[in-house]
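Homework-ish question, so no full write-ups if that breaks the rules, but can someone show me the predicted structure for this set?
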Amino acid sequence: MNETYLIQQVIKAIKGLYQHDILEKNVQISKTRKEFSGDYTLVVFPLLSISKKSPESTANDIGEYLKNNYSALESFNIVKGFLNLSLKSEFWIEKLKLFNSLNDNLSSANNKVLIEFSSPNTNKPLHLGHIRNNLIGHSVSEILKKAGNEVVRVNLINDRGIHICKSMLAWQKWGNGETPASSSLKGDHLIGKYYVLFDVELKNEIADLVSKGNSDEFAKNNTSLMKEAQEMLQKWERGDIEIISLWKKMNSWVYEGFEQTYNALGISFDKIYYESETYLLGKNIVAEGLKKGIVEKKTDNSIWVNLTDDGLDEKLLLRADGTSVYITQDLGTAIMRYNEYKPNKMIYVVGNEQNYHFQVLKLVLKKLGNEFSDSIQHLSYGMVELPDGKMKSREGTVVDADNLIDEMIDTARQISVELGKLDGFSDDEKNQIYKAIGLSALKYYILKVDPKKNMTFNPKESIDFNGNTGPFIQYTYVRINSILRKANDSNIEYKKVDNNYDLNEKELELIKLLNQYQLVINEAASSLSPAIIANYTYELAKEFNQFYHDFSILNAENETIVKFRLLLISFYKNVLKDAMSLLGIEMPERM
RNA sequence: GGUUCCGUAGCUCAGUUGGAUAGAGCAACAGCCUUCUAAGCUGUGGGUCCCGCGUUCGAAUCGCGGCGGAAUCACCA
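A: Not a homework solution, just the prediction itself:
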């Protein structure tokens, strides 16, 4: 809690009472817990060595001092070593007024931040893990922007490498010219089908070799299919016209498919990099490193970097046949990006299974003389697991992104129809609302969990639409909206508020919570965590619903109260919408 | 085996730089629609915060040691 104005008052009090200077960070002020009365609580224990008095009398000294010297203070009370301070209504009403200018009082970090997320392979459709990546990336971008940073969103498409050759080869061998049009399969799903087929056929071949008396080890390393795939990769790197044109054709199918999924999720990028366009730079960088003697060539011509001095291992940078590996292109991409944008910070949204990779990447970049290496931050997020463990494509347990999105929207439709809330809307309007609700359930479900933690998704239990969920928050918004619409229809003017307004307890709670928004944004931005925003929106919604239940707004006791409450809830509406937009979640006007 | 991360209610998760009697949702049970949208509100039950030791006025939070789980240590990406 950085309520600076209060902290300054306490510092003054300590100085006045005990002639002692104290640092801001040593003043512990927090929100007062619900079971006690007060707005803020000062923990006096750390101050005892200065006051040389008991906790109670120290708290009393400070309380009295503030009472006499700080005009905003209404009253105080002391429980054990805790000094609870209540501020005057006027103080909170002034705070509330600041929400008239919601968007222009943000801390401006003025940093340029480049953030990479999504980064799909072009050999299979997106799944639930990718959804988490995309949602986190998009949301963190929005949060950083809100906190005053310039944000560049980039996607790095992994469009080359042995895995792409596998699906190309399988399609060439067994595809019979199948296309998305001919099969009415989404392009990325079509390619995925052949990637799986390759794996199946590869297993068959290995089994065949083993049955002919070869060892498992030998069989694995000597399949004709793998050899063909490797030859294809070499041809690709040499620019073989036939292979390149096949590659372009198949990739274009995948991009069309991805585009649909990105659109459904509401995600976009400022810049898309393709590994096929950056990996050569990576190779050059490795070659330079070789000249400088930073990396070394082994007898089989493969190139390695030795990181044993840094507690890590040796790492391959180029294969013996000269083709590049994952980290090769990542080196090139990082340098290219840095030179292009000169950001203060580069964030990579990549799963925690690649923690080691990023350790290596930063080290190698540094060794090669790139000081910006220190500005790279790996936003390492946890895996999405199923109740019995990891998703495995071989076992067909992968939760497909497109299917899941469709299911969520369909569930939203079913619930809405059951409740009969959208009777009288056009089909277009209805579909738009179903989509907003279904996606909010999905997005909120994923984003409310701390990114760095693994999370469990149970496909058998559908994602909830009640309780701590996206639709609940949307519903709250819609309720507010409905009241404001009625107020508008009756031409009630509620933009002004009198400082003498007598706040009731719940109204005060609502203002205090609203007042935290700025802090919450800053915290979410510094910890790169959409979960902080999500949990805050839930608090907002819960508080409002209690208020809504306990107090009438349009039929309040008198006009002053009606107007005040309308103003208050209109700020709730704005903040709810604003906060949810940071999660990439749209708010329907009715539902 | 080395390194990193994690362990909070039956389940899914919160718990802000160490602060007061550890919180929500789901699931279960019991109430609340003639009144601003019941996708809501209220209540009941549910805990060895993995275990132990330490630091501290104070530990779910920090340190050390265990136990349990995950990831990684690829000429996959």
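Now go work out the reasoning yourself. Hint: The mean pLDDT of chain A is 92.
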